[in-house]
Amino acid sequence: MGFNCGIVGLPNVGKSTIFNALTDAGAQAANYPFCTIDPNVGVVPLPDIRLKKIAEIFKPEKVTPTSVEFVDIAGLVEGASKGEGLGNKFLGHIKNVDAIAHIVRCFENPDVVHVHGEVDPVRDVEVINTELILADLQSVTARVEKTVRLAKVGDKKAAVEMAVYEKVQKGLNEGKTARSLQLTAEEQEIIRELFLITMKPVLYVCNVDEAQAAGPPASWGEEVKKVKMLASKEGADAVVICGTVESEIVQMKEDEREAFLKDYGLKESGLDSMAHAGYHLLNLITYFTAGPTEVRAWTILKGTKAPQAAGKIHSDFEKGFIRADVYHYDDLLKYGSEQKVQEAGLMRLEGKEYVVHDGDLMHFRFNV
């Protein structure tokens, strides 16, 4: 699994349409609030042209990409944290995800009802953020009430934790997200077990109409500009996709898809954009294993050392790690085969301190 991403947004902003397009899972989509009741979950392969090129060289029996899991919950409304609409119990479905994809409506369509009567992306973002903050505040307040009793009887660990919980509680009460509070690594470790939603990195997804999608960035409109400006202020990322266009793309064969994207002037599909933005957001990279049986992509955190990268495959690989044979995708593409890369002296033996790079191909040596 590469990473998992929770999809949030107001009703009728295109959440389920985009989810369907991204996962081709056939989730229900309709023009009325609360169409999505149970969470929809879809796991899709992450597109990576490098995996395809490696497979063309090795011709394996099996090709396994890394993947992303999307979790789509019911549209949230003002007061959701207090039980309005479908209530905040549905927020629990995204407490364990790695990141949040916040779908923001940036298109006008009189046939698709907006819950507030008009399109205003900044207001919509504020409504959702407020509900997520209030939901987190409930979690933190409950933990404060529990921890304060332990701190009063001299529990030193509880006293340290209490200071962190109160700091976060104060920030949430001021309308700030947990991720904006600039917590230290130690403070983040303490707060991590609460799985706060506003602690997670967020990717804003501007859902535009077909006319906007077909034009250059300058034609995307003021709504998109506002979301991008808001994202920039938060230090977040924002991508622009069209749910209806993506719905067409997923039904196409690969050659048709490439021609379609070219006609629209798009370099990549919405899934590609979200995947790449998600990788950047979470500081992730990909390494590969390759052989006649399988070519496979593996997702790791940037800065991961070789033994921990090996542990992604199996814990025994990490425990018994000896060394790794390493070369880079660019060299494989240049020389055309693993053997020629080796003959060129570009295959290296690396030890436990080697930091894996994006695009590395690795053979692990281990002994258990």
Strand order within the widest beta sheet? 2-4-1-5-6-7
Distance between the termini: 25 Å
Give the fraction of residues assigned to helices.
Answer: 40-55%
Number of helical regions: 14
**How would you sum up the global shape?**
flat
Structural category is alpha/beta
Whole-number mean pLDDT = 84
User: SSE order in H/E notation?
Assistant: EHEHEEEHHHEHHEHHHEEHHEHHEE
Strand content: 15-25%
Low-confidence stretches: 25-38
Q: How many extended strands?
A: 12
Rg (CA only): 23 Å
- Largest sheet report: 6 strands, mixed
Describe the 3D structure.
The protein is α/β, with parallel strands linked by helices and 368 residues long. Residues 25-38 have low confidence and may be disordered. Helix content is 40%, strand content 20%. It has helices at residues 15-23, 49-58, 121-152, 156-173, 185-192, 210-214, 222-234, 243-249, 254-263, 270-282, 306-311, 315-319, 329-335, 338-343; strands at 3-8, 40-45, 62-64, 67-72, 99-105, 202-207, 237-241, 284-290, 294-301, 321-328, 348-350, 360-366. The strands form three sheets. Strands 2-4-1-5-6-7 form a six-stranded mixed β-sheet, sandwiched between helices. A three-stranded mixed β-sheet has the order 3-9-8. A three-stranded antiparallel β-sheet has the order 11-10-12. Helix 1 packs parallel to helix 8 and helix 3 packs antiparallel against helix 4 (156-173).
